[in-house]
């Protein structure tokens, strides 16, 4: 068991599952520059952490994440270089989530708006309590949610993404599940049970195979159909040469549990 905690983020690893918790409920877990930099450090460390097999991204308090820290942004109104650096740092963190070789599951309780909604959309899987709500409300304050749009439009259909972006209206968890932003919606009382059951199911797989599959999934999405099949055929051929593929096939045929070596 490994525990790291500070005023920004709490990190806890047990049985191969690392929970990364946004830890500023008094600031609605907003993505300030300091929070983004800390998250980047955490995800960089997790890339090399062999103890970690699955990541659960959670938040303390009643708000999952309210997006960027508008007070901080207002203080920097006249510093274009700060605004550029802020959004680039946010983009870096979102891409780190996607590129992390471990699956990331968002555990959503409360509200996720703007860049907070972007964070949920960037995760590989997302489970929310029934009372959770989501929005990309930048249009309401004259600041279109352009960077959240990147993750949102890659998870839900164009028309649903545009409706959220153009209206800025809040949607409930059930609607978020219907349009593809969430995998599951559960009662608040069973949120942890559902999230960690899902995490344990994935953690029990070959880490090598999961890493291979996650990487290939996102790469093929951006390819034309023919190129995607060429790429994934080569990935599968290479995967077949791996120790875990051979062990998994043998175990299946021999009707026994596989002994993963993660290679």
From TrEMBL:
Keyword tRNA-binding: no
Signal peptide start and end residues: none
Coiled coil residues, start to end: none
Keywords per UniProt: Fatty acid metabolism, Lipid metabolism, Transit peptide
Domain of life from the UniProt record: Bacteria
Pfam families: ECH_1
GO molecular function, one term: hydro-lyase activity
InterPro entries tied to this protein: ClpP/crotonase-like_dom_sf, Enoyl-CoA_hydra/iso, Enoyl-CoA_hydra_C, Mitochondrial_ECH-domain
Gene Ontology biological process terms, A to Z: fatty acid metabolic process
Summary of the function given for this chain in its UniProt record: May play a role in fatty acid biosynthesis and insulin sensitivity.
Family: Belongs to the enoyl-CoA hydratase/isomerase family.
Name recorded for this polypeptide: Enoyl-CoA hydratase domain-containing protein 3, mitochondrial
Native species: Marinobacter oulmenensis
């Amino acid at each position: 068991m490994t525990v790291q905690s500070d005023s920004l983020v709490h990190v806890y690893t047990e049985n191969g599952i690392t929970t990364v918790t946004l830890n500023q409920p008094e600031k609605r877990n907003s993505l300030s520059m300091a929070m983004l930099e800390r998250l980047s450090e955490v995800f960089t460390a997790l890339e090399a952490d062999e103890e970690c097999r699955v990541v659960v991204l959670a938040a303390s308090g009643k708000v999952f994440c309210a997006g960027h820290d508008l007070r901080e942004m207002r203080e920097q109104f006249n510093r274009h270089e700060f605004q550029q650096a802020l959004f680039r740092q946010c983009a870096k963190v979102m891409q780190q989530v996607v590129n992390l070789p471990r699956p990331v599951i968002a555990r959503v309780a409360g509200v996720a708006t703007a860049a907070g909604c972007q964070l949920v959309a960037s995760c590989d899987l997302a489970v929310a309590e029934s009372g959770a709500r989501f929005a990309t409300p930048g249009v309401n304050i004259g600041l279109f949610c352009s960077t959240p749009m990147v993750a949102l439009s890659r998870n839900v259909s164009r028309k649903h993404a545009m409706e959220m972006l153009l209206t800025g209206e809040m949607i409930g968890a059930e609607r978020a599940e219907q349009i593809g932003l969430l995998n599951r919606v559960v009662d608040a009382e069973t949120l942890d049970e559902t999230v960690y059951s899902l995490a344990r199911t994935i953690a029990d797989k070959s880490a090598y195979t999961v890493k291979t599959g996650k990487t290939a999934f996102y790469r093929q999405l951006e390819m034309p159909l023919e190129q995607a099949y060429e790429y994934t055929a080569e990935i599968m051929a290479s995967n077949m040469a791996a120790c875990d593929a051979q062990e998994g096939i043998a175990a299946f045929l021999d009707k026994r549990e596989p002994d993963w070596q993660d290679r």
